[in-house]
Each structure stands twice: as structure tokens, then as C-alpha cells.
Amino acid sequence: MKNYKHPIIYHPLYDIPLPEKHRFPGTKYSLLMQRLESLGLMESFLKYVPKPATIEHLSIAHEASYIQAIETGNLSRAQQVRLGLPWSKILRQRSFIAPNGTLLAAQLALQTGIACHAAGGTHHAHWDFGAGFCVFNDLAYTARALIKMRLAKRILILDCDVHQGDGTASILANDGDILTCSIHCAENYPVDKACSDLDFPLLRGSDDDDYLSVLGRCLSHIDRMNFSPDFVLYDAAVDVHIDDKLGLLNVTSEGIYERDRVVLSHFKKVQVPVAITIGGGYGETHEEVAQRHSIVFQSVKSIFSC
Ligand SMILES: [Zn+2]
User: Fold this and answer.
1) Which pTM value belongs to this model?
2) Cα(150) to centroid of ligand 1, in Å?
3) Residue 123 CA to ligand 1 centre (angstroms)
4) What's the gap in Å between 222 CA and the centre of ligand 1?
5) How far apart are CA 6 and CA 115, in angstroms?
């Protein structure tokens, strides 16, 4: 296993062109890849490029007329405001590719035990509308696709973004074979939370110890449930960071490393494959966000390369 490389899924069209002052760090995807190269981490990863999903593929998680509106750019001003991103041809292209990036990560993780998507975690996208910088819900799409293809029977979506996974929870509300679990800050967006199967809201200002204790409680709770997932989709978002521009938690980079280590070690021990998405992250600069997103790749290398 010494020279084994872990799958990383990335597409050169992932960056989103946005005005400089826009809150979303549109270049974080290419910057993350550059960061992984400069840290020497790419020596431990093998790159895979996903293909775009079709309207028919995506219709397992979204209403056909909404997918069509993204395809044609026929979004009203109000819909674009809710989405938080202006429609463009590049946004359209990458929106059809990214859900398949998470699905490809899942398919590879089923063979290898672990795979990382250098994008994804777009958990605010609902059945018939986009919101909070999320066009299509790659987590709901991938989980339903795996069940449909009979590649998994019981899937856990462990969402550690600072914002609640409201879109995922609402799309999958009646899917008994997919367990949605969100650990988030109670005071962060969205104001009106959905009901995940499991919600662990944290108080504003919670630090590393608070966070890790709730994470421990969450994993023990899942262990005690009569569910036993055979696959995990892990949203390893970094907007829980103390310096994040949107997140209201006080988790340090060391705390994020520890969170990822706890989650990945937990499922490695019970031999349940995990596909990772990078989720949200907002900073003063796009570079600092990319740096934080590199933390989970460090954890993967240290936990799975021995
Ligand atoms: Zn977020």
C-alpha cells in the first residue's frame, strides 16, 4: 500500500467567475489544487475528471423545470438573488459537472475506502430552487444515485458545514435509507432550518472543545441507532473556522484537522467507505480559504496512507 494514491476528483471548469467583491470565493477550487501541489500532497492523490450530468440524471434530486431553467439561463432576478450567484454559461457548465464529481468520488470510494471531491457539498440547493451559492444538491443526488444503482443500502450524509444542510434535509425527508445529519451553528444561515434526521446545533462562538464534544456525541448517537450505514458522504466544510467571514463558530485549523481525523478514523475502523466534499469556506482572501480546504486532504493522507 506504500505507493497507493487516493482518488481526488477535480474539473478545470470548477472556478466560478464573479466580481472581485463577491462573498463567494470563486477561484478557491483551482487555488486548492495549487495548494495541494505546493504542499507536496498531490503525490498521495490520483486525479480523476468527472463528466457532466444530464437533465435526466439530475431529475432524481431536482424538479425538471428547475434543471431546465439552469440549462437555459431562464432564472428570474429573485431566483438569482436567492441563489446568490449570477447565472453565466460557465456557472451552467460547472453546475452540471460538480454533482457527478461527488458521485464519481462515491463510486471510487466504494472500491478504495476513501475518495475526495475538490468541490461539492452544495447542501442549500432544494428540489425546485437554488439557494446560498448552491445550484444543484450533489449530496442528495449522489445518495439517491447510489441507492438507485444498488451500490449502497443505507447512506449517512454527515454534514459538518457551519450552515445547516437544509436543502439536503428537505429533498431527502422521506428517504428512509438515507440518514441526514447536520452539525451547524444555530445562528447561521438559513434562518428557517429544515429538519434533518439528526440536527446538532452549536451555539455561536463554540470552540474546538465544544465542537469536538458535540461531534463525539453525534457519532455515538449514530452508532446506537438501528441504521448501520454502509456508505458515508462527508461534507468537510471549513466555514466553522474562527476566521471565516460568514461562520459564527470559533474552531481553529487544528480543531478542523482533529474533526476530520475523528470522522475519518471512526469510519475507517468500522470499514465503511467515505466520499468527501469540501463544502463552504469564506475568507479575507481566496488563498486562505484554499489553505483551509487543504486540511482534510492532509488528514486523508495521514490516516489512509499506512
Ligand atoms: Zn456553509
Assistant:
1) 0.97
2) 30
3) 8
4) 23
5) 6
Mean pLDDT of 68-91: 95
CA–CA separation, 285 vs 289, rounded Å? Answer: 7
Confidence at residue 305, expressed as pLDDT on a 0 to 100 scale: 83
237 Cα–ligand 1 center, Å: 7
> What is the pLDDT, as a whole number, of residue 203?
98
Q: Secondary structure of 125-193 in the HEC alphabet?
A: CCCCCCECCECCCHHHHHHHHHHHCCCCCCEEEEECCCCCCHHHHHHCCCCCCEEEEEEEECCCCCCCC
According to the model, what pLDDT value does residue 306 have? 62
Backbone angles phi, psi at 70, to 5 degrees: -70, -40
Residue type, 131: A
Ligand 1 midpoint to CA 3 (Å): 34
Question: pLDDT tens digits, residue range 13-40?
Answer: 999 999 888 999 999 999 999 999 999 9
User: Which cell numbers hold the place of 149?
Assistant: 444503482
C-alpha cell at 185: 451553528
Task: Please give the distance, rounded to the nearest whole angstrom, from the Cα atom of residue 279 to the centre of ligand 1.
Answer: 7
What is the Å distance from ligand 1's center to 1 Cα? 35
